[in-house]
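Problem: given the chain below (83 residues), write out its structure.
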Amino acid sequence: MTLIATLGGLEIWLSAKTGWPDAFGFRCHGRNCMIKELYHSPSLLRRGGSYDIALFAALWALPALMLIVGVVTSIRGRGAAGR
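Solution.
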């Protein structure tokens, strides 16, 4: 829970520093903003500033963490079933 709150705060701060998402030509309000932001996130890398790169990493941190936890859980579950 603390990790999610920290990432959220970091994303808000970095978004203010970079002008994300308005300065990148799109807006998002309401549902599915995370998907839309992830879709447009490579534009942060194209601009290439340190805040931009940090925001890209922050945006992808939670989905990457969820994927890692899912893979590890799946591997552990498969290993326990084979015993």
